[in-house]
Write a structure and sequence with these properties.
Structural class: mainly alpha
Radius of gyration: 12 Å
Distance between the termini: 35 Å
Strand content: under 5%
Shape: elongated
Order of helices and strands: HH
Helix content: over 70%
Oligomer: single chain
Number of helices: 2
Number of strands: 0
């Protein structure tokens, strides 16, 4: 079956892959 934990881990790894600058730009764009 599908594991929600692995889903969140995948999301987390994607955020980890972002550079702080990219993450800030994405976060500010969200506002």
């Amino acid at each position: 079956g599908f594991s929600t934990t692995s889903y969140f881990i995948q999301r987390f790894r994607e955020y980890q892959g972002m550079t702080p600058k990219r993450f800030r730009n994405w976060f500010e764009a969200g506002e």
